[in-house]
Amino acid sequence: MTEAPLLVVEDLRVDFATPKGLVEAVRGVNFTLGREKLGIVGESGSGKSVTGRSILKLIPPPGKVRAKRMEFNGVDLLGANERAMRRVRGEGISMVMQDPKFSLNPVMTVGAQIAEAYRIHAGTSAAEAKRRSLEMLASVRIRDPERVYRAYPHEVSGGMGQRIMIAMMLIPDPDILIADEPTSALDVTVQLQVLAIMDDLVTQRGMGLIFISHDLSLVASFCDRVLIMYGGRVMEICEASKLAQARHPYTQGLLHCLPRVEGGGGEDLPVLNRDPAWLEEDL
What we know:
Helices cover 33% and strands 24% of the residues.
């Protein structure tokens, strides 16, 4: 028997009214997510982050979110009021943003912020919240959890800040984690460490992961499936291990534009040619 998906998204559309007219940021996106790692890739402005934020109803006015169906574990996200969404956010679906220095409260200690995230959803004592917070800091491979627990965000590095954000988002034990370019602000070595931590935690907990990135090589090596977006639409969905054999010309164009160490010829990188007809195609 096939396990029911954790998340179902059908015909998701996000519009922004601007003085220059309507901007269609997301146009008819469809996908499902099980207990797997789904990568969403595409150029800047393709609708990746807006798609992720729409799932948690975090699109501020004048943005408008519409869909035929957006359901998480049987919960109708479109019909859910703000009170119901507060239960979904964190406890059901958590989201790690791109840069921790914009997500962490600068006037609260790291420990207070993680403990607060746990107490809101678990309703436990302060002592239990501290114990669980220290456990989570250790699980994201922070060497001295006690010291980091007492530290303020400005006292930690970018890589450690991202680990803290992962700990904060996972402490309520959600079913889905949305990671919006969580490694783009980090150097390559730290990127690999953070990805390894996420991979271990997601696998151990049997979660679903939506990994938003513009790095095709990274997504191909890290995820199970890949959803390729352009102009707010899905161009193609394929297995990550077979991304190099993708058929859509947009995906192939992105792959061909990647620099290769073994190139050695000094030739210019190809330029991606975009076809307006792609925006009218049905997946």
